[in-house]
Here is the input.
Amino acid sequence: MRRVEHVMGFPVSLRIDDEDVGEGVGEGVGEEAADAVFAWLREVDARFSPFKADSEVSRLDRGELRADAVSEDLAEVLALCEEYRVATGGAFDARLPGRGLDPCAVVKGWSVQRAAELLAAAGTRRFCLNAGGDVVAAGGPWRVGIRHPEHADRLCAVLGITDGAVATSGRYERGDHIVDGRTGRPATGLLSLTVVAPTLTEADATATAAFALGAEGVAWAAARAGCEVFAVDAGRRVVRTAGVPLAGAG
Here is the structure.
Protein backbone atom coordinates (compact mmCIF):
# COMPACT_ATOMS: atom_id res chain seq x y z
CA MET A 1 0.00 0.00 0.00
CA ARG A 2 1.03 3.59 -0.56
CA ARG A 3 -0.15 6.85 0.96
CA VAL A 4 1.01 10.46 0.70
CA GLU A 5 -0.08 13.37 2.91
CA HIS A 6 1.21 16.89 3.46
CA VAL A 7 2.16 17.21 7.13
CA MET A 8 4.49 19.56 9.03
CA GLY A 9 5.04 21.64 5.91
CA PHE A 10 6.30 18.89 3.59
CA PRO A 11 5.03 15.75 1.80
CA VAL A 12 5.23 12.51 3.75
CA SER A 13 4.95 9.28 1.78
CA LEU A 14 4.49 5.80 3.22
CA ARG A 15 4.96 2.58 1.32
CA ILE A 16 4.29 -0.78 2.94
CA ASP A 17 5.40 -3.84 0.97
CA ASP A 18 4.52 -6.63 3.38
CA GLU A 19 3.35 -9.65 1.39
CA ASP A 20 0.11 -10.01 3.37
CA VAL A 21 -0.98 -6.37 2.93
CA GLY A 22 -3.84 -6.33 0.44
CA GLU A 23 -4.98 -9.85 1.34
CA GLY A 24 -7.92 -9.57 3.71
CA VAL A 25 -6.68 -8.98 7.25
CA GLY A 26 -3.31 -7.70 6.06
CA GLU A 27 -4.92 -4.84 4.21
CA GLY A 28 -6.75 -3.70 7.34
CA VAL A 29 -3.59 -3.84 9.40
CA GLY A 30 -1.74 -1.74 6.84
CA GLU A 31 -4.45 0.90 6.69
CA GLU A 32 -4.69 1.10 10.49
CA ALA A 33 -0.92 1.43 10.79
CA ALA A 34 -0.89 4.20 8.17
CA ASP A 35 -3.73 5.99 9.97
CA ALA A 36 -1.73 5.88 13.20
CA VAL A 37 1.40 7.23 11.49
CA PHE A 38 -0.28 10.26 9.98
CA ALA A 39 -2.36 10.95 13.09
CA TRP A 40 0.87 11.02 15.13
CA LEU A 41 2.60 13.37 12.70
CA ARG A 42 -0.38 15.75 12.72
CA GLU A 43 -0.30 15.69 16.53
CA VAL A 44 3.42 16.51 16.50
CA ASP A 45 2.80 19.44 14.17
CA ALA A 46 0.11 20.82 16.46
CA ARG A 47 2.17 20.39 19.62
CA PHE A 48 5.70 21.28 18.55
CA SER A 49 5.48 23.74 15.67
CA PRO A 50 7.02 27.14 16.53
CA PHE A 51 4.76 28.60 13.83
CA LYS A 52 1.52 27.73 15.65
CA ALA A 53 0.69 30.19 18.42
CA ASP A 54 -1.07 27.59 20.58
CA SER A 55 1.59 24.87 20.35
CA GLU A 56 3.44 23.68 23.43
CA VAL A 57 6.69 25.00 21.97
CA SER A 58 5.24 28.48 21.40
CA ARG A 59 3.69 28.59 24.87
CA LEU A 60 7.01 27.58 26.43
CA ASP A 61 8.85 30.21 24.39
CA ARG A 62 6.44 32.93 25.56
CA GLY A 63 6.89 31.91 29.18
CA GLU A 64 3.33 30.65 29.55
CA LEU A 65 4.63 27.19 30.39
CA ARG A 66 7.38 26.43 32.90
CA ALA A 67 10.37 24.46 31.64
CA ASP A 68 9.77 21.86 34.35
CA ALA A 69 6.13 21.47 33.32
CA VAL A 70 6.51 20.46 29.68
CA SER A 71 5.35 17.09 28.36
CA GLU A 72 7.70 14.11 28.42
CA ASP A 73 7.92 14.25 24.63
CA LEU A 74 8.96 17.90 24.54
CA ALA A 75 11.41 17.32 27.39
CA GLU A 76 13.00 14.57 25.28
CA VAL A 77 13.21 16.84 22.23
CA LEU A 78 14.74 19.68 24.23
CA ALA A 79 17.28 17.30 25.76
CA LEU A 80 18.30 16.20 22.27
CA CYS A 81 18.64 19.84 21.18
CA GLU A 82 20.92 20.49 24.14
CA GLU A 83 22.96 17.35 23.42
CA TYR A 84 23.70 18.53 19.88
CA ARG A 85 24.34 22.11 20.98
CA VAL A 86 27.00 20.93 23.40
CA ALA A 87 28.45 18.40 20.94
CA THR A 88 28.93 21.09 18.26
CA GLY A 89 30.22 23.80 20.56
CA GLY A 90 27.11 25.87 19.87
CA ALA A 91 27.05 25.58 16.06
CA PHE A 92 23.74 23.77 16.36
CA ASP A 93 21.33 25.72 18.55
CA ALA A 94 17.54 25.62 18.83
CA ARG A 95 17.64 29.05 20.54
CA LEU A 96 19.50 31.33 18.16
CA PRO A 97 19.92 34.96 19.26
CA GLY A 98 17.07 37.16 18.10
CA ARG A 99 14.87 34.18 17.28
CA GLY A 100 12.32 32.18 19.20
CA LEU A 101 12.70 28.58 20.30
CA ASP A 102 12.78 26.38 17.17
CA PRO A 103 13.43 22.66 17.75
CA CYS A 104 12.27 21.67 14.24
CA ALA A 105 15.69 20.28 13.26
CA VAL A 106 15.28 17.63 15.95
CA VAL A 107 11.49 17.25 15.90
CA LYS A 108 11.32 16.08 12.29
CA GLY A 109 13.65 13.09 12.57
CA TRP A 110 12.52 12.24 16.09
CA SER A 111 8.83 12.21 15.18
CA VAL A 112 9.25 10.26 11.94
CA GLN A 113 11.39 7.69 13.74
CA ARG A 114 8.61 7.36 16.31
CA ALA A 115 6.17 6.87 13.43
CA ALA A 116 8.38 4.07 12.08
CA GLU A 117 8.27 2.44 15.50
CA LEU A 118 4.46 2.58 15.36
CA LEU A 119 4.60 0.70 12.05
CA ALA A 120 6.90 -1.95 13.50
CA ALA A 121 4.72 -2.33 16.59
CA ALA A 122 1.70 -2.90 14.33
CA GLY A 123 3.50 -5.82 12.71
CA THR A 124 4.61 -4.24 9.43
CA ARG A 125 7.98 -5.65 8.42
CA ARG A 126 8.85 -4.03 5.09
CA PHE A 127 8.17 -0.32 4.74
CA CYS A 128 9.69 2.96 3.63
CA LEU A 129 8.64 6.25 5.23
CA ASN A 130 9.86 9.35 3.39
CA ALA A 131 9.39 12.73 5.11
CA GLY A 132 10.41 15.54 2.81
CA GLY A 133 13.39 13.57 1.51
CA ASP A 134 14.51 12.09 4.83
CA VAL A 135 13.89 8.36 4.92
CA VAL A 136 13.52 5.59 7.47
CA ALA A 137 13.16 2.10 6.06
CA ALA A 138 12.84 -1.49 7.20
CA GLY A 139 12.91 -4.93 5.60
CA GLY A 140 14.92 -3.85 2.57
CA PRO A 141 16.79 -3.70 0.38
CA TRP A 142 15.54 -0.23 -0.50
CA ARG A 143 17.24 2.15 -2.91
CA VAL A 144 17.48 5.74 -1.65
CA GLY A 145 18.77 8.49 -3.91
CA ILE A 146 20.93 11.42 -2.81
CA ARG A 147 19.88 14.47 -4.79
CA HIS A 148 22.49 16.49 -6.63
CA PRO A 149 22.77 19.80 -4.72
CA GLU A 150 22.76 21.88 -7.91
CA HIS A 151 20.61 19.86 -10.32
CA ALA A 152 17.16 18.80 -9.10
CA ASP A 153 16.82 16.18 -11.85
CA ARG A 154 20.09 14.40 -11.04
CA LEU A 155 21.41 12.16 -8.27
CA CYS A 156 24.87 12.15 -6.73
CA ALA A 157 24.53 8.54 -5.66
CA VAL A 158 22.09 5.81 -4.76
CA LEU A 159 22.23 4.10 -1.39
CA GLY A 160 21.17 0.57 -0.53
CA ILE A 161 19.32 0.55 2.81
CA THR A 162 18.00 -2.56 4.53
CA ASP A 163 17.06 -1.30 8.00
CA GLY A 164 18.03 2.26 8.87
CA ALA A 165 17.66 5.91 8.02
CA VAL A 166 19.00 8.54 5.64
CA ALA A 167 18.81 12.32 6.11
CA THR A 168 20.21 15.17 4.04
CA SER A 169 20.78 18.82 4.91
CA GLY A 170 21.49 21.29 2.13
CA ARG A 171 21.01 24.74 0.70
CA TYR A 172 19.19 23.78 -2.50
CA GLU A 173 15.57 23.74 -1.22
CA ARG A 174 15.39 26.57 1.31
CA GLY A 175 18.55 28.55 0.61
CA ASP A 176 20.93 29.45 3.43
CA HIS A 177 18.47 28.56 6.20
CA ILE A 178 20.87 26.65 8.48
CA VAL A 179 22.69 29.07 10.77
CA ASP A 180 25.97 28.50 12.58
CA GLY A 181 25.02 29.37 16.14
CA ARG A 182 28.60 30.33 16.93
CA THR A 183 28.59 33.21 14.45
CA GLY A 184 24.91 33.91 13.83
CA ARG A 185 25.58 33.68 10.08
CA PRO A 186 24.36 31.12 7.53
CA ALA A 187 26.49 28.01 7.24
CA THR A 188 27.97 27.97 3.74
CA GLY A 189 30.89 25.55 3.96
CA LEU A 190 28.91 22.70 2.39
CA LEU A 191 26.42 22.31 -0.44
CA SER A 192 24.84 19.19 1.04
CA LEU A 193 25.54 16.57 3.66
CA THR A 194 23.85 13.19 3.97
CA VAL A 195 24.00 10.96 7.03
CA VAL A 196 23.14 7.26 7.16
CA ALA A 197 22.39 6.05 10.69
CA PRO A 198 20.38 3.38 12.51
CA THR A 199 17.57 5.85 13.33
CA LEU A 200 16.21 8.98 11.71
CA THR A 201 16.44 10.76 15.05
CA GLU A 202 20.23 10.44 14.82
CA ALA A 203 20.54 10.84 11.05
CA ASP A 204 18.47 14.02 10.77
CA ALA A 205 19.86 15.85 13.79
CA THR A 206 23.42 14.86 12.92
CA ALA A 207 23.02 16.06 9.32
CA THR A 208 21.71 19.45 10.41
CA ALA A 209 24.29 19.86 13.17
CA ALA A 210 27.13 18.86 10.87
CA PHE A 211 25.94 21.27 8.18
CA ALA A 212 25.91 24.07 10.75
CA LEU A 213 29.55 23.25 11.55
CA GLY A 214 30.52 23.77 7.91
CA ALA A 215 33.42 21.90 6.34
CA GLU A 216 34.52 20.58 9.75
CA GLY A 217 31.10 18.97 10.12
CA VAL A 218 31.98 16.06 7.83
CA ALA A 219 34.63 14.71 10.20
CA TRP A 220 32.45 15.52 13.22
CA ALA A 221 29.51 13.52 11.85
CA ALA A 222 31.74 10.66 10.73
CA ALA A 223 33.10 10.34 14.26
CA ARG A 224 29.65 9.74 15.73
CA ALA A 225 28.87 6.10 16.45
CA GLY A 226 26.87 4.40 13.72
CA CYS A 227 26.98 7.33 11.29
CA GLU A 228 28.20 7.26 7.69
CA VAL A 229 28.52 10.50 5.71
CA PHE A 230 28.27 11.57 2.06
CA ALA A 231 28.93 15.28 1.54
CA VAL A 232 29.50 17.83 -1.21
CA ASP A 233 31.53 20.80 -0.01
CA ALA A 234 31.39 24.38 -1.25
CA GLY A 235 34.15 23.58 -3.73
CA ARG A 236 31.97 20.81 -5.21
CA ARG A 237 34.24 18.10 -3.87
CA VAL A 238 32.57 14.85 -2.78
CA VAL A 239 33.67 13.49 0.60
CA ARG A 240 32.33 10.20 1.95
CA THR A 241 33.14 7.70 4.65
CA ALA A 242 34.12 4.17 3.72
CA GLY A 243 30.94 2.64 5.09
CA VAL A 244 28.45 4.58 2.96
CA PRO A 245 26.25 1.82 1.45
CA LEU A 246 26.45 2.81 -2.20
CA ALA A 247 24.10 0.85 -4.47
CA GLY A 248 24.92 2.61 -7.72
CA ALA A 249 25.88 5.91 -9.29
CA GLY A 250 23.46 8.70 -10.09
Summary: The chain has a mean pLDDT of 94.
